[in-house]
UniProtKB/TrEMBL annotation:
One GO CC term on file: cytoplasm
Residues annotated to bind N(2)-acetyl-L-ornithine: R143, S282
Record: residues binding pyridoxal 5'-phosphate: G107, A108, F140, D225, E226, V227, Q228, T283
Protein name per its UniProtKB record: Acetylornithine aminotransferase
Gene Ontology molecular function terms on file: identical protein binding; N2-acetyl-L-ornithine:2-oxoglutarate 5-aminotransferase activity; pyridoxal phosphate binding
Amino acid sequence: MSVNTQVQRSLFDEVMVPCYSPMEMIPVRGQGSVIWDQEGKEYIDFAGGIAVSCLGHCHPVMVEALTEQAHKIWHLSNVMTNEPALRLAKKLTEVSFAEKVFFANSGAEANEAALKLARRWAKETHGEEKTEIIAFIQGFHGRTFFTVTVGGQPAYSDGFGPKPGDITHLPYNDIEALKAHISDKTCAVMMEPLQGEGGVLSPTNEFAQAVRDLCDQHNALLIFDEVQTGNGRTGEFYAYQGLGVTPDILSTAKSLGGGFPIGAMLTTTELAQHMKVGVHGSTYGGNPLACAVADAVVNYISQPAILAGVKEREAWLKEGLAALNDKYNIFADIRGKGLLIGAELNQEWQGRARDILVASGNNGLLLLVAGANVVRFTPSLVITKNEIDQGLAKLDQAIASLL
């Protein structure tokens, strides 16, 4: 009996909670930035599992790290520590501002820890009244009830009953709005240093600096959500390093494990002391398998040549998209940093980002959307020039099929 007759797409509708609507094809194998489905059809991967597969599929660095750790120890819980977790934590402090690390399993969990730390710090250092969290419209910070409420997209947080309170949403890149609202009751400002889900929007340098300055003026913490932008995605190891603005707390996940689930909250020694024993925790956080893989990923990506290669690939992809735009007049803007790129559709193509995603899939290309009007590209950070060229050719065919 073949794999295809054993597991079919119809089984999803039969056994899975219907909060996803996956493509009809089922991938079964991947190598680099190419995957193959059950029928053997080949796809170029410009989606990278939503900015997760930073080294592509089955990279030998990750396979070797996982295989080696799989023969040692799999799980301990935080009643004990383990060598891979300590090695990874040390490495993360070396590549960032941070002095202390808390491990979780996802970006949402890392953000949950960051928000809890901010509230706990404010309570213990400034009193009960300092509770407000400011975030930004169209921001995205995860799907737990706290993080989805802090996220600035009501469609994701409405319909679940009373929401966590004292959360304010302001326009992104609007210095005056922030200046007018922030106060000494604000305990933290949470922002993405490049909005991903919200449309691939970069902050101006002036806005990023103003957020830092206003936080300092009002004794508020600055939390950078680098779940999507971190681990080399923008061509810096963390995006804050390209902005010249340092947060107090940083969350990272997605590409941290290159496909193995792991998240982390990074902060300073001074702030970390408010997370005393018993205040927060995670059964799986710091799992040896996850940390061994992530350590290998971080060691590889943090090499200067790899980070420089991200910016080189950004240029290849943006040039290719510009050429397609010259041919089809479809994009109003091509933006983003590194390999987090958004192509905003022009007036004639409004609302058709998903049409392009579906047509691309039919033509052997996997990509993403960021809302109804932005096509999003988050490929492997080591994708080859040939794979980029193949993917752009498939995107050309997909757009042509929609004319």
